[in-house]
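User: Sequence recovery, please. Input:
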């Protein structure tokens, strides 16, 4: 695949604005071409600025929310009202502020099942049903991702079995080294790499070493899982701030 597009932004605010503009463009194109826009949101804290921008009066009118379907790239196995819940963060910062988004268009991970593997299986079924894709790999129109200081993305952590899974859409993922120390579920590389567009949002100098490795093209997926995101035919873009890009 071609080298990723890297856009160096002044700061996290510019990352959010550029990401919001790309979200709007992708949503418009998908609605025209397919009548729906399927997006996987990222967890962590970086996406919050993007969410608040999309929920602002400047942006809410730019998206046909009734044609948007919201999924999650990964989720912590905690209650949805837990401060560590990725769904809870998206709800607070975006979903609760979109009256035009039908509630049925949001597909959170069920985190109240017996074990993380049950949550993963349940979400895989929900994905297959939502995409009407019961054999192949569903193609998201847009997957938003972050980058951990340790090179992880979604909940694909260094050295973990989930990195080599090719026959599942969603798997359980034990806690990584970064907080919070809770079980998770994550989309697998086949799903991430089937996306029509993948957009990394990376801010802060702590991310600089991992980002440099991933962008170098030399990083191993085992040590820097984000390097395993190589969309087969989709676009790959990194929106990074100067601090993460090394000044
Ligand atoms: C998660 C996220 C995770 C996140 C990175 C970056 O559930 O933790 O999906 O992959 O994107 O850890 O997190 P920050 O944006 O908070 O730095």
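Assistant: Recovered sequence (247 residues):
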């Amino acid at each position: 695949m071609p080298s990723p597009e890297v856009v160096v932004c002044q700061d996290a605010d510019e990352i959010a604005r550029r990401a919001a503009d790309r979200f709007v463009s992708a949503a418009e194109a998908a609605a025209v071409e397919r009548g729906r826009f399927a997006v996987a949101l990222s967890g962590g804290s970086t996406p919050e600025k993007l969410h608040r921008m999309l929920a602002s009066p400047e942006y809410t009118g730019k998206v046909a929310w009734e044609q948007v379907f919201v999924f999650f790239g990964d989720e912590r196995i905690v209650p949805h009202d837990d401060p560590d819940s990725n769904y809870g963060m998206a709800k607070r910062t975006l979903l609760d502020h979109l009256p035009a988004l039908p509630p049925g268009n949001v597909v959170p991970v069920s985190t109240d099942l017996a074990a993380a593997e049950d949550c993963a299986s349940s979400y895989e079924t929900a994905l297959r049903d939502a995409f009407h894709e019961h054999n192949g790999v569903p193609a998201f129109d847009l997957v938003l991702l972050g980058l951990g200081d340790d090179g992880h993305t979604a909940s694909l952590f260094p050295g973990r079995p989930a990195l080599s899974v090719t026959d599942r859409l969603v798997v359980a993922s034990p806690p990584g080294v970064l907080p919070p120390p809770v079980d998770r579920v994550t989309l697998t590389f086949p799903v991430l790499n089937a996306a029509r567009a993948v957009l990394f949002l990376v801010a802060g100098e702590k991310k600089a070493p991992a980002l440099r490795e991933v962008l170098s093209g030399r990083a191993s997926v085992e040590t820097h899982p984000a390097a395993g995101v190589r969309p087969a035919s989709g676009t790959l873009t990194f929106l990074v701030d100067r601090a993460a890009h090394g000044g």
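The chain has a mean pLDDT of 97.
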